[in-house]
Known about the structure:
The protein has 256 residues and is mainly β. It has helices at 37-45, 140-143, and strands at residues 2-5, 14-18, 60-66, 77-78, 83-96, 101-111, 118-120, 123-128, 162-164, 170-172, 178-183, 190-194, 205-207, 220-225, 228-234, 249-251. Strands 1, 2, 3, 4, 5, 6, 7 and 8 form an eight-stranded antiparallel sheet that branches. It has a five-stranded mixed sheet with strand order 9-15-14-11-12, with no helix packed on it.
Amino acid sequence: xxxxxxxxxxxxxxxxxxxxxxxxxxxxxxxxxxxxxxxxxxxxxxxxxxxxxxxxxxxxxxxxxxxxxxxxxxxxxxxxxxxxxxxxxxxxxxxxxxxxxxxxxxxxxxxxxxxxxxxxxxxxxxxxxxxxxxxxxxxxxxxxxxxxxxxxxxxxxxxxxxxxxxxxxxxxxxxxxxxxxxxxxxxxxxxxxxxxxxxxxxxxxxxxxxxxxxxxxxxxxxxxxxxxxxxxxxxxxxxxxxxxxxxxxxxxxxxx
Length: 256
């Protein structure tokens, strides 16, 4: 039996499949992604109470929420086995870093898996998004030091450690300071941001899309924040602006 769920008031209607209790079904032929720009702007100015953002083993990211889901907030990092309880009017968008599956879930009880969620008593719609899940090799250590798209072939110093699939990164700037991004494969492109003077989502995420900024598709960059740094490549097909956060998220290693 089909059902319709409007994930955000005034936003495009999401056509989902009704899921009986204890079962999940996937509808991948049609997916209407909810724009995240309005939510990001709201999160930047609202105070959000602290919650654990860094999961012990990152498998999914909370990209969007509606209502007050119990067990997750916008931009939380999720580990396998995490349980999220959604009320009848609640909805959540999760993106998995290995499978590149983006789920829009309304109501029910959600149990986070390694590649998809189990949904009991709610509705779920799944779609593939651009990420490098097919080439990932995520260990718990890698999951805590890079945002989901760690390249297996990144072995030698200076080689890109991950691929971003959006030209407007979302930087996890935990700890603050001065963010520096320098292009390595071509001279002349350098960005420096004093994070203490910039609006940060949840007090730690700097979103290039919200600031109207972007990097160059195909470019190789080094980002640094204090003593932490990471080298990454922007995919040739990457576009500026909002897109699935799992394809734009950049996380730094913790300082040793």
